[in-house]
Specification:
Elements lengths: L43 H8 L18 H18 L4 H42 L2 E3 L7 H6 L15 E3 H5 L6 H29 L8 H8 L10 H16 L7 H16 L3 H4 L2 H20 L2 H12 L5 H21 L23 H31 L6 H16 L3 H4 L2 H9 L13 E2 L6 E2 L10 H24 L9 H25 L4 H4 L11 H17 L3 H11 L5 H18 L4 H9 L16 H4 L12 E2 L3 E2 H10 L4 E5 L7 E6 H14 L8 E3 L15 E2 L10 E3 L4 H11 L3 E6 L2 E7 H11 L11
Parallel strand pairs: 5-7, 9-10, 11-12
Antiparallel strand pairs: 1-2, 3-4, 6-9, 7-8, 12-13
Helix pairs in contact: 3-8, 3-9, 3-11, 3-13, 6-8, 6-15, 7-24, 8-9, 9-11, 11-12, 11-13, 12-13, 12-22, 14-18, 14-19, 14-21, 14-23, 14-24, 15-18, 17-19, 18-19, 19-21, 21-22, 21-23, 22-23
Length: 795
């Protein structure tokens, strides 16, 4: 009596794991035949091998917006494996096939890694070029961005390394002047024009060609990896449109990143390549192993962090992560990182844009500001999750959500108008983070590095930043404070727009700005108050004690941790991203603090919050079930419900069976001995019954409306003039999962999580009482948390 999704086809797939129901073969199967749902019964071999012979379209697959049966899929894979192993000694061809089957896993993750690395390199190069297009164009070579355009120029000076005759701003091209109010207004206008053009093109492509290409994609990938089916979410159209619109969205200057969507892009590659290998294309559980490896490759190329990618897949997105998936994820991340390094999109011969080298150690006292940055990260995370979810809920429930193009244009216009006057918000967010992470040295021309040299009082870029700050540093601090407020507000409204939008980079930017402000404040404190006991021990006058860039790095990790609630994988990603291996302890302290502070306001991260908002049937393994309810409190039917819809094992006719199917919308029916005894025999799925009846009518003569249907091994005794009976034992799941009515819900929830069940039958002394489905559990958990139980259902 598993209830169907409102938006879905009411049929669920056949539970035997095969691809056909050859009903004409049923009578000669003999008494050794029994059905298995992964219980490990030896007799399941006959059944599965019978069913794998002639596939009938539609059987053994799943409908859209349904959950897969993990137990059945694993059983199906074991049978396939046994079959291949039993045949491999028969001939050289069979042996080759078995080798191909064994290697197909490594082959599919290699292809996924290659495609992910290539696409990430392409996206990085295209986004950089289009981002610079908002400010000007390279006359000597149109396809060069600003930095590449000035590489070959001999006219650049150290102070003005970004100015070269080959690069022209739009004001120079249109008005013929580089300075003055007219040129500023022209550049301002062109900046807004390009930002709106890119945003408009991105949202139109998403709306028309691939609605699933919007957002970050990580909440949906988590749900898909838990066993939910969303057809087309990882398809070729989604991949193509997401790749193009991701470049446009990043270039439009919206407060978003490309890191989350790159995980979606990598998973699309994994899904598409898995169709080349029957081992993965015909088994949904095996396909999810490939998707776990693909998500690791996605993070690997997004941050240039292969080990962080594997840990991200393990900690954040994967539901089922066996050891061989860990090795394959590691290999996919390695291949993807290698391809990206070969493409060298940043032109610095490194995997990452943010590579930094700090030359000073950190001191124990500095843990206090690091922990304070952790507190800020946790507070920002909690605030962001609440504000963003409230806005997304409002978007869903009001008319505003019906105009996604208008919303994107409005947000892009506000972002462009406010961002242009401030150099820190005008530039690409990744470039901003790089500047904030970078330590001040003799090669830095940033405003953040204007210190007065103690030798003659003139402004110089010295090796020693522990000196009094110039007015340039103070004006930079004001601009950073304004940039921080701007980023906080715009990120809340941008995440959830109908364009590809990642959250990693905006969160890191917010943390890096806050961290750099704290770092400069600490540095000036150490300079003016070096005789304080805090600084006296370890900071000599004129020595290089405090590194503001390190504070920016710690702040970035803390804010990202506050929003996503990642811990281990985040620390590894950040130290791979920056190369700052000796700063692991400050990073760990800040990330753990941000998680604790964030958890004090609510335990779920932004991805779990969006899963709940969208009503996906996701049982989070991290969430504890602490209530003392029993199975009988949750099962259906309840007191007010109609009785449980059941089938009897040998006294229904085809007409009566069809009437039960037509009058109900349940996805399956328990089969019992008789209405009087209520003893449980098994569980039959609606889809299987329908297909079996149609098949029998087409291929067996004498099946009529008054034909008797039986689920037993032997036909019941019938009068001589009765029409031919219909045997449906082959589609009966003889080992459905059952619990007693006194089983604590704690254990039931654990069974559902760990075995990936869709339904579980409730018995009392062997008599059938009711049924618990995954949705009943989700409703019950929502009720216990004082939420509307119906609001969590997928729509």
């Amino acid at each position: 009596m598993e209830e169907e999704d409102a938006a879905a086809d009411p049929y669920l797939p056949y539970d035997g794991g095969g691809d056909t129901i050859p009903l004409q073969e049923i009578p000669r199967r003999g008494s050794n035949y029994a059905m298995s749902n992964g219980g490990g019964a030896a007799s399941s071999t006959t059944h599965l091998l019978d069913f794998l012979e002639e596939p009938i379209p539609g059987v053994g697959t799943y409908d859209d917006f349904h959950t897969i049966d993990w137990v059945r899929e694993k059983c199906k894979d074991r049978e396939r494996h046994r079959k291949i192993n039993s045949k491999k000694k028969e001939s050289a061809w069979e042996f080759t096939k078995s080798l191909y089957d064994a290697w197909s896993g490594w082959l599919v993750v290699t292809l996924t890694g290659l495609a992910s690395g290539a696409l990430a390199g392409l996206i990085d190069i295209a986004a950089d070029w289009m981002n610079d297009l908002k400010e000007g164009v390279c006359l000597s070579a149109m396809w060069f961005n600003h930095e590449q355009c000035c590489w070959t120029s001999n006219e650049t000076t150290f102070a003005e390394r970004d100015k070269c005759p080959q690069w022209k701003s739009w004001a120079e091209l249109i008005l013929g002047q580089a300075e003055g109010p007219g040129s500023y207004i022209m550049n301002y206008f062109m900046y807004i024009y390009w930002a709106l053009s890119f945003a408009f093109l991105a949202v139109c492509l998403v709306k028309v060609f691939a609605p699933y290409a919007c957002g970050s994609g990580i909440p949906e990938i988590k749900t898909i990896l838990s066993g939910f089916i969303i057809r087309g979410y990882l398809g070729k159209w989604t991949l193509m449109i997401k790749t193009i619109t991701l470049v446009l969205a990043v270039a439009s200057g919206l407060s978003l990143g490309k890191e989350g969507p790159l995980v979606h892009v990598a998973c699309c590659c994994g899904n598409i390549f898995s169709y080349l290998f029957p081992k993965y294309s015909k088994n949904e559980a095996k396909k999810r192993e490939v998707l776990s490896a693909a998500s690791a490759a996605g993070v690997s190329v997004a941050f240039g962090a292969p080990i962080g990618g594997v840990l991200f897949s393990l900690e954040e997105v994967s539901y089922y992560f066996p050891l061989k998936t860990l090795w394959r994820s590691f290999f996919a991340a390695l291949v993807a990182a290698f391809v990206l390094r070969s493409i060298n999109p940043f032109g610095n011969s490194r995997l990452v844009l943010f590579y930094v080298e700090y030359h000073t150690p950190w001191y124990l006292f500095e843990l206090i500001p690091f922990i304070l940055l952790g507190v800020f990260g946790g507070l920002w995370g909690a605030f962001f999750i609440r504000a963003n979810i409230a806005w997304c809920r409002r978007r869903k429930s009001t008319r505003f959500g019906k105009y996604p193009v208008l919303e994107v244009i409005l947000v892009a216009a506000i972002t462009a108008v406010v961002a242009f006057p401030n150099p820190y918000t005008r530039q690409n967010t990744s470039e901003l983070i790089k500047e904030l992470f970078t330590d001040c040295g003799p090669l830095e021309s940033s405003q953040l590095c204007q210190y007065r040299s103690q030798m003659n009082g003139s402004t110089a870029y010295t090796d020693n930043p522990n000196q009094p700050a110039e007015p340039g540093v103070y004006s930079a601090m004001w601009q950073l404070c304004l940039a921080l407020i701007f980023k906080i507000i715009m990120t809340i409204f941008t995440f959830g727009l109908k364009v590809p939008s990642g959250l990693f980079i905006p969160s890191m930017a917010i943390g890096a700005i806050a961290g750099r402000i704290v770092g400069i404040a600490m540095e000036q404190l150490a300079y003016y108050h070096h005789d304080w006991f805090l600084f006296k021990e370890w900071c000599e006058v004129g020595a290089d004690c405090i590194t503001p860039g390190l504070y920016a790095m710690v702040g970035a990790a803390a804010c990202l941790g506050g929003v996503t609630r990642m811990t281990v994988s985040l620390v590894v990603i950040v130290f791979e991203l920056t190369g700052g291996l000796e700063y692991i302890v400050p990073l760990m302290a800040a990330v753990m603090t941000s998680k604790w502070v964030g958890d004090a306001f609510g335990r779920e991260g932004i991805y779990e919050a969006h899963i709940r908002l969208n009503g996906y049937p996701f049982l989070d393994a991290k969430e504890e079930f602490t209530h003392t309810t029993l199975a009988r409190d949750v099962m259906r039917p309840r007191n007010s419900d109609p009785p449980l819809a059941v089938l009897t094992q040998d006294d229904l006719t085809v007409e009566e069976l069809q009437a039960v199917i037509n009058e109900t919308s349940y996805n399956g029916f328990p089969v019992i001995v008789s209405k009087e005894s209520q003893r449980l025999v098994g569980f039959a799925l609606r889809r299987d019954i329908t297909i079996a009846i149609e098949n029998a009518r087409r291929k067996q003569e004498g099946i009529m409306l008054n034909s008797r249907v039986y689920f037993t091994q032997h036909a019941p005794t019938l009068p001589a003039d009765s029409p031919r009976p219909l045997k449906l034992r082959s589609i009966l799941d003889m080992s459905p999962f059952t619990v007693t009515d006194h089983t604590p819900m704690e254990i039931v929830v654990d069974i559902f999580r760990k075995l990936g069940l869709r339904q579980c039958l409730v018995t009392h002394n062997g008599r059938l009482l009711g049924i618990i489905t995954k949705k009943d559990i989700l409703r019950h958990m929502a009720q216990m948390a004082d939420q509307d139980p119906e609001s969590i259902m997928f729509n």
